[in-house]
Amino acid sequence: MSTLDIHNVYKAYGSVEVLHGVSLNIKDGEFVALVGPSGCGKSTLLRMIAGLEDITAGDIVIGDRIVNDVAPKNRNVAMVFQNYALYPHMNVRDNMGFPLRQRRMPKAEIERRVNDAARILGLEPLLERKPRALSGGQRQRVAMGRAIVREPNVFLFDEPLSNLDAKLRVQMRSEIKELHQRLGITTVYVTHDQIEAMTLADRVVVMNGGIIEQEGPPLELYDKPASRFVAAFIGSPPMNFLEGEIADGAVLVLADGTRLQLPAGRQYRRAHVTVGVRPEHFELHETGWPATVSVIEPTGSETQITARMAGQIVRILVRGRTLVMPGEVIHLQVRSELLHIFEDEVARGSRVLHLQEKQYA
Amino acid sequence: MTSIASPILKRRSGRLGHKVRIAAGVIVSLIFLFPIYWMVLTSLKQPVDIFTTPPTFFFEPTIATYVEYFRRADISRRLINTIIVAAGSGVLSIIVGSMAGYALARVRIRGATTMGLLILLSRGVPPIALAVPMFLVARKLGLTDKHITLILAYCTFLIPYVMWLMRSFFISLPRELEESAMIDGCSRYGAFLKIIVPISLPGLLSTLIFSMILAWEELLFALVLTNRYASTIPVAIAGIAGDTINGANWGALTAVGTITVVPVVIFALLVQKWLIRGLADGATKG
Ligand SMILES: Nc1ncnc2c1ncn2[C@@H]1O[C@H](COP(=O)(O)OP(=O)(O)OP(=O)(O)O)[C@@H](O)[C@H]1O
Ligand SMILES: [Mg+2]
């Protein structure tokens, strides 16, 4: 177990720079999830921590040792790959024992650790099987077993669940969480599934185009997204965005001329803003922003309403059931502290101004 | 889409298609096997039966030609030479070639592909253009008529062959296997030996077999670089065929030809399982 510090790390493949100065300090025992769209550099960063990619600039520190030039085998990290990378010619027992045999651990100790891991992961009946005779979920467990027998300083996961079906993914997700709580090993977990990141991690790091867009505890990212990008990325179904011009102090004029009243009493630095509302934060009232219902999707516990507002599609999530019918005009209100206003057009690096202490819309 | 449609299609065309395929297979096999069959047949004939027109399929077989040629020490010695040279060059080229192929497949070197292509291109040079300089070099080094000379000479074309075949085999393996091994405590070399080589064994073996067959049949370099001591079977066949004084001895030619082919066939049958697996499953996923 150990801390992991990433200081201003850059990565370039030839002349193409893919990481532009990433810094991250991970506490001992912390579970950090890296999320972001495809190609944003999550795997690259993880592979640099593992020592599989050179570091173009910056430092990676595990514990109190700079590991920039340390071979992967000497970093004492364990990694679980998306395709599991089980050694096909070895049975489950040998697969899990491999890292220990490489370290010339005594046979009895290897035996003990492999059996322990097998018990924790429910792999005992499968120890003599070859990987090809295992299901996807079982392979995934073996890959985890091979990582935990090491008792490494840092665990690295690169989308370990993305090859599993939805149900198994949810099950393995809680197994990973339980495992982390039990072992308390510093973990970096890459995923493009924001739900996975939110549910597993102590801290979520949202990456975009080779930089860290925002980092923080899961609910902080949900409540206070620092940019439109993060707002769009975190939360499901995603946040609704309404773009328009500010007029008369607190009126948002949408592209088609529709005027929406915004909470009064704040200054806007720019005329062009984006207002973001999470689907679950809309409330149906007698008055408010008008929208025409197009689709109703009840799931029992909640109902998702798709509606058109000023030529734009908005999604509304209401608890329980609703009597609203398609074609009907509804009126939406949002509590002002739940309204997100993004003042910059560019998604990245923009600042958000929360209306924490403001009144109603 | 096809996965839904195919069971129906398969059932409809199943029986007929299967028969047609078997028939085609038999015909093609016959076309390829007939010359070998004829060679073996001829080798078992008395000299008088060889030239009858029309050719006979029924005759009293004799192994006289074999006995005669095996009595001559040089055929059995040549057989041993051929085995030594084929095995030596096969093994050497598989070791060097597979490592080179691995480097080309995995290690990020600038111009690796160009390098690979150049090595492959070197095979485009007509062997005859290499044979004479090779002979001169071998003579200067006092290496003519030695097994090692032929082994090294064969490596010049076997290594590129092995390298190129194994390169594409290694590329088909998921990179994460070695990366995982390297995180688990191996150096890159260790990952290659402990993970990649065992996984690639079928591919390595089939490539080894093909290399050995290529070396087994090689004539030109053997002709130029050896004369008595290290001479191989193909040289003997060429000698019999090109005997301008006595005329070609067809009985001898086909007998020695059969001796050349039989070990290859036996060997191929023995390792058939490996051969097919090596050719069929390039990627060893999971
Ligand atoms: N070997 C390489 N050579 C050149 N560019 C590369 C190489 N590996 C990755 N890249 C580039 O680096 C960027 C980041 O890749 P990376 O694999 O880290 O993305 P990712 O965030 O893991 O995406 P995904 O969610 O699809 O796995 C991509 O634009 C990719 O094209
Ligand atoms: Mg990735």
UniProtKB/TrEMBL annotation, chain A:
Q: Which organism is it from?
A: Microvirga lupini
Bilayer topology reads: Peripheral membrane protein
Q: Provide GO CC annotations from the record.
A: ATP-binding cassette (ABC) transporter complex, substrate-binding subunit-containing
Please name the NCBIfam families in this protein's record: PRK11650.1
Q: What is this protein called?
A: Multiple sugar transport system ATP-binding protein
Q: Taking the first listed entry, what is the main subcellular location of this protein, grouped into a coarse class? A: membrane
User: Which SUPFAM superfamilies does the annotation name?
Assistant: MOP-like (SSF50331), P-loop containing nucleoside triphosphate hydrolases (SSF52540)
Nucleotide-binding recorded as keyword = yes
Sorted alphabetically, which Pfam families does this protein's record hold? ABC_tran, OB_MalK
Q: What is an example of a GO molecular function annotated in this UniProt entry?
A: ATP binding
Keywords of this entry: ATP-binding, Nucleotide-binding, Sugar transport, Transport
GO biological process terms on file:
carbohydrate transport
* Localization in the cell: Cell inner membrane
PANTHER family membership: MALTODEXTRIN IMPORT ATP-BINDING PROTEIN MSMX, OSMOPROTECTIVE COMPOUNDS UPTAKE ATP-BINDING PROTEIN GGTA
Q: Which stretches make up the ABC transporter domain?
A: 4-234
Report the family membership.
Answer: Belongs to the ABC transporter superfamily.
Q: What InterPro entries does this protein map onto? A: AAA+_ATPase (IPR003593), ABC_transporter-like_ATP-bd (IPR003439), ABC_transporter-like_CS (IPR017871), ABC_transpr_MalK-like (IPR015855), ABC_transpr_MalK/UgpC-like (IPR047641), Mo/tungstate-bd_C_term_dom (IPR008995), NA-bd_OB-fold (IPR012340), OB_MalK-like (IPR040582)
Tell me yes or no: is Transferase among this UniProt entry's keywords.
no
From TrEMBL, chain B:
- The UniProt entry lists the main location of this chain as membrane
Which GO biological-process labels does this protein carry? Answer: transmembrane transport
Please indicate if the UniProt record lists Aminoacyl-tRNA synthetase as a keyword: no
Keywords attached to this Swiss-Prot or TrEMBL record, sorted alphabetically, are: Cell membrane, Membrane, Sugar transport, Transmembrane, Transmembrane helix, Transport
InterPro entries, alphabetically?
BP-dep_ABC_trans_perm, MetI-like, MetI-like_sf
Topology of this chain in the membrane: Multi-pass membrane protein
The record ties this protein, via PROSITE patterns, to: ABC_TM1
- ABC transmembrane type-1 domain mapped to chain residues: 79-271
Nucleotide-binding in keyword set: no
Q: Which residues cross the membrane?
A: 20-40, 79-105, 117-136, 148-170, 191-216, 250-271
Q: What Pfam families does the entry give?
A: BPD_transp_1
Q: Which GO terms describe its cellular component?
A: plasma membrane
Q: Where in the cell is it found?
A: Cell membrane
Family from the record: Belongs to the binding-protein-dependent transport system permease family.
The name on file for this protein is Multiple sugar transport system permease protein
Specify the species. Answer: Microvirga lupini
